[in-house]
């Protein structure tokens, strides 16, 4: 129903969606839906060929951090963290319908989920700093409950990022030595997580600026 949209814009006519019978139809427009007070659905599609308002199962599980259990006559929404049931959709004409009272409960669950996700993220970053910026993967094993409501790959720590930058990039230079061994570039790498059979865990490189000849020597300790 286009009257449910706000911030509505017409489609270019090139976008199409597939129907259950294998055919496709054009998308008439796109906009934002306001469902039950302040719950907004961004990027909702207006397809005039659809007689019903459909809700994406994938979108619902991501928003609520829940799982859906389907049976012949109902669909149960269950919170992944608490295990509590947060909604029921009853089967009707091949679809699972969410009545208004269930949708209201879903709105409340969404608000609680967002608040829980924010609180868990703040607690997670607090302990990350208190433990001396411990890697996220290790912290996840210490506090698994804090990581159940958000994805670790979606967060970052500015302090950790800056700490990895040991120095600024070297300035570009167009000069070159005029003879061999007049200017030598050297660098030490290590320690390696795996040692050689002889106990070497570092190596040092010497590069001649004129000929680009490279010499590599293995080291057991950086002090060598």
Distance between the termini: 76 Å
Largest sheet: 4 strands, antiparallel
User: How is the largest sheet built, in terms of strand order?
Assistant: 6-7-8-9
Shape label: elongated
Characteristic terms for this protein:
RNaseH-like_sf, three-stranded antiparallel β-sheet, 224 residues, nucleic acid binding, 4 helices, 23% helix, alpha+beta, RNaseH_sf, single chain, four-stranded antiparallel β-sheet
Question: How would you describe the overall organization of this protein?
Answer:
The chain is of the alpha+beta class. The chain has four helices and twelve strands, in the order βββββαββββαααβββ. The strands form four sheets. Strands 6-7-8-9 form a four-stranded antiparallel β-sheet. It has a three-stranded antiparallel β-sheet with strand order 1-4-5, with no helix packed on it. A hairpin with a 2-residue loop joins β8 (85-92) and β9 (95-97).
In a nutshell, what does this entry contain?
This protein is α+β, with helices and mostly antiparallel strands and 224 residues long. It is 23% helix and 30% strand.
Q: How do the strands and helices of this protein lay out in sequence?
A:
Blueprint: E1 5-10, E2 16-18, E3 24-26, E4 29-35, E5 39-46, H1 57-64, E6 66-70, E7 74-79, E8 85-92, E9 95-97, H2 100-130, H3 136-142, H4 158-163, E10 184-189, E11 202-208, E12 214-219
Antiparallel strand pairs: 1-4, 2-3, 4-5, 6-7, 7-8, 8-9, 10-11, 11-12
